[in-house]
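Would you be willing to look carefully at the protein I have copied below?

:::
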Amino acid sequence: MADLSALLNTAAEEVLENMFFSGVTGELPGEPGGDRLSATVSFVGSSEGELTVSATASALSALAAGFLGEEDDAVSEAQLQSVAGELANVLCGAVLGHLNPKGSFRIAPPRIAREQDGNAIREMEVRKLFELLEGDLAVGLTVH
């Protein structure tokens, strides 16, 4: 199987730069902390599994502002949730495209949740904690 950690790195850099006008500035050691919003998408097809993104409200607000062309303080809670779901969906598509370029996948609609300390990604096969200019972004991926 492909190096899922490297695929997450590549996909996160592409998606954040091209769609959210942000970028990965490094990788943080340890586990994500604080109050967070997470979005999880599951996928079936050539491979099955799920991908979860998790970020603090302030980091997600800055990402959403870039994505929506808004000011950080103008982003509503509903927009935060929508953008978190879109980030999970697009990141999952990018990972799957790299994993199996000729594969066929169906990605389920995102499930949004509030969480504490990154619990949503703790049990996933691959976990990455990216440092962004806006804060941190935790991503977890499991492929069966």
